[in-house]
Task: structure prediction
Amino acid sequence: MGMVGGGEGSFIGPVHRIAAELDGKIELVAGAFSSNPERSKQSGTNMYGLVLDRCYSSYGDMFEQELSLDSASRIDFVAIVTPNHLHFPIARAALESGFHVVCDKPATLTLQEAVDLKECIDQAGKLFALTHNYTGYPMIREAKHLVQTGALGRVRRVNAEYIQGWLADLEEKTQNKQAQWRTDPSRAGAAGCMGDIGTHAFQLTEFVTGLEIEEVSADLTTFAPGRKLDDDGNVLLKLSNNAKGVLCASQVAVGVENGLTLRIYGEEGGVEWSQMEPNSLIVRWKDRPYEVRRTGGAGVHQPSASVTRLPAGHPEGFLEAFALLYRNFAESVVQVQKGKKASKCDKDFPTIEDGVRGMRFIEAVVTSSENDSQWTPIVR
Amino acid sequence: MGMVGGGEGSFIGPVHRIAAELDGKIELVAGAFSSNPERSKQSGTNMYGLVLDRCYSSYGDMFEQELSLDSASRIDFVAIVTPNHLHFPIARAALESGFHVVCDKPATLTLQEAVDLKECIDQAGKLFALTHNYTGYPMIREAKHLVQTGALGRVRRVNAEYIQGWLADLEEKTQNKQAQWRTDPSRAGAAGCMGDIGTHAFQLTEFVTGLEIEEVSADLTTFAPGRKLDDDGNVLLKLSNNAKGVLCASQVAVGVENGLTLRIYGEEGGVEWSQMEPNSLIVRWKDRPYEVRRTGGAGVHQPSASVTRLPAGHPEGFLEAFALLYRNFAESVVQVQKGKKASKCDKDFPTIEDGVRGMRFIEAVVTSSENDSQWTPIVR
Amino acid sequence: MGMVGGGEGSFIGPVHRIAAELDGKIELVAGAFSSNPERSKQSGTNMYGLVLDRCYSSYGDMFEQELSLDSASRIDFVAIVTPNHLHFPIARAALESGFHVVCDKPATLTLQEAVDLKECIDQAGKLFALTHNYTGYPMIREAKHLVQTGALGRVRRVNAEYIQGWLADLEEKTQNKQAQWRTDPSRAGAAGCMGDIGTHAFQLTEFVTGLEIEEVSADLTTFAPGRKLDDDGNVLLKLSNNAKGVLCASQVAVGVENGLTLRIYGEEGGVEWSQMEPNSLIVRWKDRPYEVRRTGGAGVHQPSASVTRLPAGHPEGFLEAFALLYRNFAESVVQVQKGKKASKCDKDFPTIEDGVRGMRFIEAVVTSSENDSQWTPIVR
Amino acid sequence: MGMVGGGEGSFIGPVHRIAAELDGKIELVAGAFSSNPERSKQSGTNMYGLVLDRCYSSYGDMFEQELSLDSASRIDFVAIVTPNHLHFPIARAALESGFHVVCDKPATLTLQEAVDLKECIDQAGKLFALTHNYTGYPMIREAKHLVQTGALGRVRRVNAEYIQGWLADLEEKTQNKQAQWRTDPSRAGAAGCMGDIGTHAFQLTEFVTGLEIEEVSADLTTFAPGRKLDDDGNVLLKLSNNAKGVLCASQVAVGVENGLTLRIYGEEGGVEWSQMEPNSLIVRWKDRPYEVRRTGGAGVHQPSASVTRLPAGHPEGFLEAFALLYRNFAESVVQVQKGKKASKCDKDFPTIEDGVRGMRFIEAVVTSSENDSQWTPIVR
Result:
């Protein structure tokens, strides 16, 4: 694989490298790690141990040069880990060059770009994965299974929450590059906190419940003085099949590290999951004690057991969950290399469909918030 | 003290008895425990060990008979633990008979009644306590102190939640009296779940933050088919001083027992509390590890330390918190008996002010929900 | 009831008062609260609200005076809450005066006294309860039930632990009376930490497992320089039916409040309980997820359900558990008053049998520790 | 690197592969994965994606063939992941062939072999790492730092525990190879549970406290009928500097997954850590609330911060901790390749010293247990 972005100062670049390689199916062999050619080379050799001549000056360069290699050495796909505004042009270029694409979320800067990107993908006949990595946790798979099989009964109520505290102050005024681009509309998009982490909560909710969030009533707030995008928000949800819910996102919840939690209550039972202790899933029932299912533990079902790497009690974490998306993506890549159409692959990873949904969610919450929290539909 | 309501099948009657007597300052000596005279006597003697001649046939009877006793033997105040629709007439009668009143929440059936009751109280010059008992937990006092002293900085974000699962099915179709009246508009009032437990979350939020919830955007739902009142709801909050928040209440969150939680994030720190493990308060800070303050434990402040009965690690629970309200009420009663004006007492318990606020909250959420979740003010 | 001890500065006196009165069956009406007559009167009136003429100068005085009252007004039993060395003489005098006795643990200063006390009790034909209060927690009852019914299979392994940190320093050099007598061999007995809290862990283990601890290999330590009794200790256990275990006790585990925990593993399942969060019982199974049973919650059995006062999720604590012993004791007192022989009563509270066992445990661990941790039997 | 052992059915082989490669410094390129040549080839190609001609029939073969390759392609070190009885002959052969060695724990089958192995290592001048992987957790590093800097004061008390439930039944009678060799004295050594997991608890205790466990009083038990080695055991500890402690290990604690916990109490503070939620470290203090330090979180110190890969709240797990040992080992290998003497390297990973200590521990606990739990020294 070849990476675009992820140079020095990047948090997510190394994450993608480790996640991609964890299961031994993928190797990072090339990259355009920075728009600054010198820094790209330095990052490639120092951070990723690449040979110098595959550390490219630009992504265009990488695509061109790699295509000139024989197909055995050439990268099979591109991982895009840049700020949001670059996702679309890079993804389009990669697809047009014939590469499959893994792209960080949210899919694009604008909804229109996401729709256009979907078009590009369809035309290219290539695979596209969006790294909504939290879907890779075994206990999320277990929760989804419990909903899907009807064990919980019809879903009534959802509490989805993703709160952090790292942007409580104007971190973007420091040297923190992460803070800089994530709070800048021209690089992050129409929403700040809601785009950066609210979309994860949105996507995870739909992933686990199998329902669609149909309407939102949102109240976005900017607490840090002078910041241009929301850093906090609360959203009432109407879901398909008459379910209701709330989605909260914040980056000013001081002292909270990475508080993604999901709780779902159906007619017969409920599930509660918290990303910071991801190997436990609380399952509540009507007439018996609640139980705690554990990654790889007794009584878990095949959909979670099959994506667990270690015996129960040997905690798996963020990287392992992330790696599942890459593993599943790699399997699809192999299928396509063996002749299967990309459109026919059984894709067990988030795709551009999730990407478009996420951009529609951002658009709807921003619109609702600008209109006194008016209920606003999320178009299918 | 004399009790009205609380006869056989009552959950809250015995709670009030234990809470009132726990600190050794109050004794239950009389009661009109049921509108059925026979049942009142049975309840009084069997459940509460009273002598037969102080188990009255009706509250009117009790007020009259007790007034005929000498003031040393006579009850000093009345505790009202009936369904909501009876709070107002009984409280008014008690006040007019010259008794102080402790009343279960919500204050009354309608907002108008609450306003009228306030008028009655003022005119009677008596004390009135509303048992928003969760304010009696030491760690709630600690949280309030941390906000009040500015340790957390200006409050930005609140998550208040009170969810239960016991009404997931049509429990009111069984013999469960609790379920029957709590889901009946003529006895419970305009809101079901929001009135029964949402008001606790509302009151606790205002109590701890010292802020007012100024506007709500609410979405109430009735999930159990045929039920007349809401059994679930989510409310966006705008608080004074530009804080924001969410309040969730549900009685269909299957398997959840009594999930009252409060989380408050300020500019400098945050607090997180959960009623089911009430002796711990998580305190989060910007630049250091989070800490867990414990009832009676090292480092807690006077407002919580002074309301703790046991050494740290000896868990206090629901009854002890409830008892604090009675203890504080009893102190005020003594002050009044010594000649202080009721209006001049330093009342460390919820009063009719909280009661009126609670009724305004109910009115506002019901109105908002009926108007497509339109932002609706809660009048001061 | 009449109390001996429990005057100003006492932690456990008020606990006994609240616990005794909580269920409305018992009233504290008399006491000899201090060996100093003046302080006894002050404590009685200020702390307990008693009338002056039932605040006695000495326990002898109380027994004599109370006997001169008519049987309806007279105390029915005596609660002894003094330092350990006074338990025996007071209990004997009370029994000989014809009163039933509730006594704090450990039963006596020495094993011989405990044996003698048992003799006194048998001869007096009176009831005697030892307040190993932790047996009163509903989830302890649930655990015992799971063992008793064989749900966990034959018990193999026990971890009993009671650790605190409050004696990490030489607290006895301050004004802390609790620390003073508990570290003084002439008042506390042969063991310090092991006698004070180790006996609770010992008794709870036998209570829940239904097994006898037959042999101990103990290593007691005194960490605080100059202290005369152990403040820390670890004990290997051999139990009946070939079970094994460890019992740890410490009062120098800095920062730990009141860490009594019990874990029991059988051939088919296990239970884990922690006193500081007493309303949860973890139950582990061989082939399914672990479950968390909750006080009053779904699926709990009659032995715990019947001793629960509140709906699930309304936390009960230390006082409520303590109160159960008094409630059960009161029921036995009533039975005896109705003519039943004390020896024939179904006593659902710890008795002098537990007291003698506890003293044998103390003797055995002290002996073992003095003999290089040699395995030492606990005689039946 | 080349692996010996780790073929089909192995749990730990894939763990070593992922751990070794996680930081991008090491690649598995060769292996002798089974004593059965056919299975070795299958495992190498299927499980590890190796080219066929570097899947060797035996470790002797691997060492010989690899030496014939040029030094750039040749493996730099050997990872031994076989049952215990093969550690010594393979490690010796590897060292004599000039390879550095990473070896799973315990070091060898017998103490004598461990002593001999140390001799081999010294003579060969090569690096040797023993994968006591739990030392790689950031919060273990934080705990060690708090002890080392004196923040906790002089250590007084240690509770080390490693309990599991997977051998509650005679799992070795099924097809479970893990259970078969781990319960077989000829392949596992003198101790079962104590050797397999007790040694981890032992090593971790010494690692974090910086103290030596000097004497043990042990009681080992075999609960599963017919099993030849201990499956449960409790050990009293005397540590250097007059500290005391208990070490518990069990593989029959039904339902417990992988319960490694460590608690250390000093004169000023204490730490509590649990492997199953490894990203939290409870730190207790004398006079202030306890705090929870988190992997990568606010206020943690350099020794833990520097070994954290992700921002706080992105959980790291077992594999990441394991990988740290490989990363540190790789750094030492590079140093040696640059000319540094192995004996002069700053080795931040467990070495043969830990291995010899571990074997002495096994010997001491077995001896003590056979002698009525007599205190038995662990020779330096």
Q: What stands out?
A: The first strand of chain A starts at residue 2 and ends at 4. Residues 193 and 231 of chain A are 5 Å apart (CA to CA). Chain A touches chain D at residues 11, 14-15, 17-18, 21-25, 48-49, 164, 166, 255-259, 275-279, 294, 297-298, 309-320 (CB under 8 Å). Chain A is about 35% helix and 20% strand.
